[in-house]
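Re: beginner question about structure tokens

> Can someone show what the tokenized structure looks like for a real chain? I only ever see the sequence side.

Sure, here's an example I had lying around. Input first:
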Amino acid sequence: METKKFKITQSAFDEIKATIGNKPAESGGLLFGSRKDFTVTRFLFDKNSINTRSSYTFNTGYLNPIIKKWWDEEELELLGFIHSHPYGLGRLSQPDKDYFASQFKNIDVEKFLTPLVFSAKDGGFKFIPLAYNKNGTVDTLELEIVTNSNEITKKKKKSTRKKKKINNYKSKTVIKINNTFKVEPKTIPLKIDEIKKETEERVHKTILDSFNFSQLYQVIFTCFLIILLGFLIVLIPVFYKYIIQQLLN
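And the corresponding structure tokens:
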């Protein structure tokens, strides 16, 4: 079975690499192009988004007006969402999937392009081409970078462009306010023995973390006193016996 392609122009890919790919996780943006072939021709970096090391929240006040503007002026359609994960988490988390699923009611499509990125700041740039389908499945695609001359959607002059009825969006705002992507560290519930082991490891780590140099010095000094006391207990009777013998002689 032939692997499905994730097509993106060189310019869009380079911009992703220079922005998301050069910032610590998590950051992101939107992917645009034509839904006729789902080739990504434009990337919109999400400026001033609210980011932590485990979450990414859209700056909707910045993104939504541009979504409308690019459609009105260039007929660019929103194809999907892209964001970075901490290095090693190369799959969509459940909160990611929940958000993408919620957007199908705003945009009448069968899939979203939902690639992930590992940043060069976190250990090396990597682009993971994924698509989230309306039925809840996730496809891993084959990345194909195309030259900019192959872009399907190009900017048209306003004087010659015919207005088309917008029927792709059910509402002007296609991104929920305060939506947040969150990293989901575990998807499988821990077993009881694993929880016990994890708790013991946390306790052990806490003890080690709190065991500073001052405490180490106190322990060494206490051990020294104990050894010295034991030595004196053994030595004093011997010394006393020696003194008595000398006096008797």
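Each token stands for a local structural state, so reading them left to right follows the chain. Residues 213-248 form the longest helix (36 residues).
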